[in-house]
Each structure stands twice: as C-alpha cells, then as structure tokens.
Design brief:
Length: 120
C-alpha cells in the first residue's frame, strides 16, 4: 500500500492483493520503521460500523475507515477510486496501476493494468 499526503489530502493506493485482502479480511496495514524505536503505521479498515469513509490519526497511526460493503463492491468492479471529504480533509482510495514509463518490473508487481497502457 502506498501513502501520499499533500496538504489536507490523503491518498492510499492498493495493489491487487491488498484490494482483495481489504474486501475479504477487512484490513490492510503498513509500517514505516524509523529505526529509533519509533514507527509510523498507516492502515485501511473495512467495517460494518461506519457509514462513510473517514480517517483518524493518533499515537503515530493513521487509519482510514471504509464501509465494508463499499470495499467489497469496489474490489469486484472496474472503479479506480473512491473518494470522500472529511471537513477540509480529502480522502482518496485507489487501485494501484502499473507505471507507463519503463522501470524495474518488481515495482509494478501485483499492480492493476493501467487503462492507458497500449496493450489493453
């Protein structure tokens, strides 16, 4: 899972495996270890207890919550992303596409076929 934060905007990009895991298990998490005992954790959770996409931050943890039914539907369709606003905070959850520019194949492992890829 990739995380991009820019101003009051949070974007998560999930690989094929992560999209499937979110739909089936309801949870995907990544940890960034700073090597000094401090870690930053970011996660996305599918839940029957939330009605809209929202996010929370505390104790070095960023968690985005999504209705489980939305996660399940999204995993099984061609929709690229899901977005929501939480006050001034913009949230975007996207399927991670392969890069159109040549690069190390390992970086594109488990990504979705880019819609603008000539091979489509």
């Amino acid at each position: 899972m990739k995380l991009r934060i820019r101003g009051s905007s949070i974007r998560l990009r999930l690989t094929k495996t992560e999209v499937l895991k979110l739909a089936e298990q309801g949870f995907v998490e990544e940890t960034t270890d700073f090597g000094d005992g401090n870690c930053f954790v970011y996660a996305i959770s599918g839940s029957d207890n939330v009605e809209t996409i929202n996010a929370a931050f505390g104790d070095n943890r960023l968690e985005v919550f999504i209705p489980k039914s939305v996660a399940e539907t999204w995993a099984n369709n061609e929709e690229v992303g899901i977005s929501a606003n939480q006050g001034v905070l913009k949230l975007l959850i996207e399927k991670d596409f392969n890069c159109l520019a040549p690069r190390d194949a390992a970086e594109d492992a488990d990504t979705f076929q880019h819609p603008k890829d000539a091979e489509c």
